[in-house]
Amino acid sequence: MGIVAMGKGGSYKFEGSTITAIAYCLYCDRCGSFNIGKRITLKALIWISITAIITTIFWNSVKDGALPGAWLVCFGSLILFISFFGVFQLGNRCKKCGNRHMTMSNLLNYPANDRSILDVPYETTVKYYFDDY
């Protein structure tokens, strides 16, 4: 995935200089699409669902104190569920071709600030903001 400058964010003054944040939109290096989403896959969602179901069933069967320490098992399963959900949110992938590799350069040489190359609305693109000194 690459990035291309698509606009300006806010400006602020710092030690007498005006610093402007530039919005860079993320795109896929392989197909050129700006339709980028989070990395949660069907496999991850299935594992999250299975963990939640098992935890719920186990908790309901032992909540009357039939098994000492059952809350530790339920708490551990809940932590596993949260870690699955959190870890898989960190990356991005192309929704068009599935590419997951990302670079922070304009590999396809898209022109800066040309929104006609976007295949999705500007508001739905993944943006990174960097300061222009």
- Kindly report the spatial arrangement of strands forming the biggest sheet: 1-2-5
Based on CA atoms alone, the radius of gyration comes out at 22 Å
| Elements, N to C (H/E) | EEEHHEE
Termini separation (Å)?
25 Å
User: What fraction of residues sit in β-strands?
Assistant: 25-35%
Estimated helix fraction: 25-40%
On the 0 to 100 scale, the average pLDDT is 78
The number of distinct structural domains comes to 2
Please count the beta strands (DSSP E, at least 2 residues each): 5
* Total of DSSP H or I helical runs spanning 4+ residues: 2
Largest sheet: 3 strands, antiparallel
Identify low-pLDDT runs. Answer: none
SS-based class = alpha+beta
Q: What shape does the CA trace take?
A: elongated
Topology summary:
Layout: E1 2-14, E2 17-27, E3 36-38, H1 42-62, H2 70-87, E4 92-94, E5 127-132
Antiparallel strand pairs: 1-2, 2-5, 3-4
Helix pairs in contact: 1-2
Short note summarizing the structure:
With 133 residues, this protein is an alpha+beta fold.
Write structural notes for this entry.
This protein is α+β, with helices and mostly antiparallel strands and 133 residues long. The chain has two domains: 1-37 and 95-133, no CATH class; 40-90. 29% of the residues lie in helices and 27% in strands. The protein contains two helices and five strands, in the order βββααββ. It has helices at residues 42-62, 70-87; strands at residues 2-14, 17-27, 36-38, 92-94, 127-132. The strands form two sheets. The chain has a three-stranded antiparallel β-sheet, with no helix packed on it. Strand 1 (2-14) and strand 2 form a beta hairpin. Helix 1 runs antiparallel to helix 2 (70-87). It is elongated.
